[in-house]
Amino acid sequence: MRYSKYFIPTLKEAPSDAEIISHKLMLRAGLIRKLSSGIYTYLPVGLKVIRKVENIIREEMDRAGAIELLMPGVQPAEIWQESGRWEHYGKELLRFKDRNGRDFCLGPTHEEVITDLVKKEIRSYRQMPVNFYQIQTKFRDEIRPRFGIMRCREFIMKDAYSFDVDEKGAERSYEIMYDTYCNIFKRCGLKFRAVEADTGSIGGTFSHEFMVLADTGEDQIVNCTACPYAANIEKAEVVDHYESEAHSQRLLPYEEVHTPDVKSVDEVSEFLNITSKELVKTLIIKTDGDVVAALIRGDHELNPIKLKNLLGAQELELADPLLVEEITHAPMGFAGPVGLNIKIIADNAIKGMKNFVTGANKKDTHLKNVNLDRDFKVDTFADIRIITPEDRCPKCGGELHFGRGIEVGHIFKLGTKYSEAMGALFLDRDGKEKPIVMGCYGIGVGRTVAAAIEQNHDKDGIIFPIPIAPFEVIVVPVQMHESRVSEVAERIYKEMKDSGIDVLIDDRDLRGGVKFKDADLLGIPLRVTVGKRGLEEDMVEIKLRKDKEPFSVPLSNVSSVIKEKIEELYGKAK
Ligand code: ATP
Ligand code: MG
User: Fold this and answer.
1) Helices 445-455 & 44-63 angle (0-180, nearest 10)
2) Which of 207, 431, 459, 568 has the most CB atoms less than 10 A away?
3) 129: cis peptide before it, omega within 30°?
4) Which residues pair with 504 in a beta bridge?
5) Is the distance from the beta carbon of residue 146 to the nearest atom of ligand 1 less than 6 Å?
6) pTM
7) What are the pLDDT digits (tens) for 424-465?
8) Atom 29, ligand 1: residue with shortest CA distance
């Protein structure tokens, strides 16, 4: 490719609404442009990178025996009504009517479409296992689109759906996808970790998210330093060991204390000169038309996903001040479990507490020396909090490490949720009709590119891992009008092209410095610089984007050195 004939609109500065580095660099390097909130055009270089990721995905999915098809982006309401998600999906589902007044939506995912297809086409156990995949554009009306194509509204996803005759088969399909995803992200040259993810009401450990490790990631993840356990913080189980000293404490009589305008955990503990560990927060929570209280130790945080799963709830939110007042007869900030007439769910950590402080359900008042059973009853004890660095690995008791990641892929064992709701049944070997057991598997293609940049950049621009770089090599003639310079550069360019290397020649009539800046910004892994001075000694310079310094190579060796370096870079990505 020739730079002068291509379209790479680089920018000196990123627009001010770009918050994170990958977003800034994708705009500056001319990979994407925004059309509307969360809706982007992939410019030629951006598309080239997207296609490289897609090709890796396609190769690995094919290798795993999955079969490619392509489903429509526009989906009729009927199938969503069948699955029950027309009501539950919420506002991320963009709905509209056609000219005949029929309801449609833009597909945010394709469980309904594929289940509808399979229900009509697959009748016998002989037709399974089968796994269908597509690489297709999704639309989700995200509440807060941000970070460019990392979290946008229209995006490209690879989604796959497996169909098996029984649980065991579905587990096998899941394992195959797990391994396939590992291969895909390895081949993309990314540092990633597969973590256990929330499975909602289905439960079990059959969901993993693939996280690209990056400090700017939206997701928090934990991993054990002693065993392979790793989980999204949303999911990470907490095993509570009750503090033994609490057991020997005597129960003291409880008393009211006047705490004028003292509401938050920090304020209360400071006012009463206690640590936040001696305090119990009472959170009033609205869930599916019901109200419950959740008790959490002062220094801990509620994990709303755990509570939601425990209750089997669709919706969960903190009660507003009005509702809090109605339930507790006190303004927000003074809720407590004593005398409270709603269901009380307490985090396990509270089991080990004695003589603690709670709100008094009375304005400007707290209670001291509150005790379980004596003063109030808990309906359910459960693990409903977010894991902390003080906690240990739930599997082996080892020390935990906390980090951040960007979710680029998600695999999920669905079971028979959709096949039962939509009637996707098959005739088994024993002649009985049974629901098909499903799994679903997604990769955000655009997000993978953004995450790769988030993980691989420096102050000058992107440092693409070679397997997903827009070009493997850029040839930069420094003085274009020197005929020998441009002759040699053209010759090197042609040779590389002929040997199948993905190469760009910067044939623009610009100063070398400008070209170097653009090459760095674009993140092309290898640069060959052809300059007048070097040529006097029949030498050219090669520079790896990730290295600081270039090195000189005799003209006669350029091809072989470049090939060697390319291989080295690909080797690293394997
Ligand atoms: P998130 O929690 O980030 O919203 P999700 O759990 O909704 O993700 P899935 O439904 O599992 O995502 O979709 C599969 C993959 O699609 C995700 O792992 C992610 O890579 C990608 N993806 C999801 N939402 C977006 C989005 N708004 N923009 C870009 N990619 C997305
Ligand atoms: Mg989402």
Assistant:
1) 110
2) 207
3) yes
4) 474
5) no
6) 0.92
7) 999 999 999 999 999 999 999 999 999 999 999 999 999 999
8) 151
